[in-house]
Amino acid sequence: MGRIAASPHAPLVAGVLLGVLAFLETVLRLPGPDAGFGEQEHPLVLLLALITTVPLVLMPTHAVSAAVLVTTANFVAMTPFHLLTVAGTAAQLTVVHQLGRQNKRVLAALPVPLFLGYAIAAAPDLGLGERTLTLTLASLTAAAAGAGIARRARNEARVYSAAAQAVADSLLEHAARGERARIARELHDVVAHHISMISVQAENARLTTTGLPPDGARRFLAIGDTARAALTEMRRLLGVLREDAGESPGRKPQPALQQLIELVDDARDTSGGATRLIVHGRVVPLDPGIELTAYRIVQEALTNARRHAPGAAVDVELRYTQTGIRLRIRDNGPGPRDRGGKVPGALAGHGLVGMRERAAMVGGELNAGAAPGGGFVVEARLPAPGAQGEGT
User: Fold this and answer.
1) Structure confidence by residue, pLDDT tens digits, 42-57
2) 106: which of 122, 145, 247, 280 is 20 to 30 A away, CA to CA?
3) Transmembrane residues, as ranges (predicted)?
4) Taking the CA atoms of the chain, what radius of gyration do you get in angstroms?
């Protein structure tokens, strides 16, 4: 039925088919004893039967004209001739439904008071069956117009929802790209340090190792040259990233977990709420990339807590395990729904996207959502073999 209704030939087929049915129904009812017209008016009644249905063929291009013709013909056939056909009723419901779908609400609802007013004004002259039929037609017309208006509203809502989702997906994608670029810029300093150490140690080994054969000296020299070339290439790529982001190069060292105490103190002073740092396990040095990632996750989580739950108490927990380090940042403020976001099941918001990108970059994972008992919690697991120590 849906495919038939969507066919470009559907109005033509519907108009012709309903016209034939209305004509046949009228012919069968002409000899009726309750007919309110004489034989000389038969051609006019048959013509009205066709006008109540055939204008459906005009709906794709002249919807208003078709609706006016069908409504007028039905009203004329109903008032002086008392001959309303089933096909004419179907055509009437179709035209008001289509007007509702085309957002012509006033025109779609106009036949309702017309039929209803006739049923009320002519009530003394109408039989019970005819009055009931007229009231039923008015009710069905109102329902058909309302269905058309509601369907248009649903379609518009669906289109708007799809557009809003596309915009949201695009924003999240751009946020993820920007976060990856920032991560690359930050990790440059970490990786550059290791490559510089390779170059320096290779050069020292070549110059200080006594009895080093010429082939070994050439190999150490090649190692140093390769490290310096890699460092140059990294700086070139970093320059491209900074040009894309419109940033000026800086020399500020990247933070690590040793700066968490300062970060927590600053968060406590800024938010005015209680902020604690809790560490489980023996603190051991980790890979600089892991420490930078952990620091940035805690920093972003504290920023989110300060923005969405001002004055709330926040606990920052670090747990060193045999396979890595676990982070848990929880506040006792409002949950995710009160913050205007639906986080459970999918990370939402640019800050959470950035934290997830950072965790995934080092092979970890991050979850965020409503905390048991109220509040908001961010949990991350970052791989760092051998991080577990004794003590708490």
Assistant:
1) 788 888 888 888 988 8
2) 122
3) 12-32, 44-69, 75-95, 107-126, 132-150
4) 39
Residue-wise pLDDT tens digits, 345-375: 334 455 787 788 888 888 899 999 888 888 8
For 46, 95, 291, 323, the CA distances from 20, given in Å and listed in that order, are 11, 18, 82, 81
Closest among 325, 260, 357, 252 to 299, alpha carbons compared: 260
- Residue 375 · residue 335 · CB < 8 Å: yes
Q: Rounded distance, CA 131 to CA 300, Å?
A: 71
Dihedral, 17, 22, 27, 29 alpha carbons, nearest 10 = 140
Q: Is the pLDDT of residue 343 over 50?
A: no
CB of 313 closer than 8 Å to CB of 331: yes
d(CA 55, CA 30): 23
Residue 83 φ/ψ, nearest 5 degrees: -135, 85
pLDDT at 392 over 50: no
Cβ neighbours of residue 340 closer than 8 Å, sequence gap 6 or more: none
Distance CA 13, CA 4 (A): 10
Q: Which pairs from 138-144 meet CB under 8 Å and 24+ separation?
A: 138/111, 138/112, 140/89, 140/93, 141/92, 141/93, 141/96, 141/111, 141/112, 141/115, 142/109, 142/112, 144/93, 144/94, 144/96, 144/97, 144/100
Domain ranges of the chain: 2-162, 167-245, 257-383
CATH number belonging to domain 257-383: 3.30.565.10
Closest to 52 measured CA to CA, from 31, 27, 76, 24:
76
pLDDT of res. 190: 65
What pLDDT is attached to residue 340?
Answer: 45
Is the pTM value of this prediction over 0.85? no
Reading phi first (left if > 0) and then psi (alpha if -120 to 50, else beta), residue 363 is in left
Query: For residue 253, what pLDDT is reported?
Result: 64
Amino acid in the structure at residue 67: A
Location of structure tokens 């996207």: 353
Rounded CA-CA distance 320/287 in Å is 13
The burial of 376, by beta-carbon neighbours within 10 Å (0-12 exposed, 13-18 middle, 19 or more buried), is given as buried
As a whole number, mean pLDDT of residues 86-95 equals: 88
Average pLDDT over residues 197-215: 83
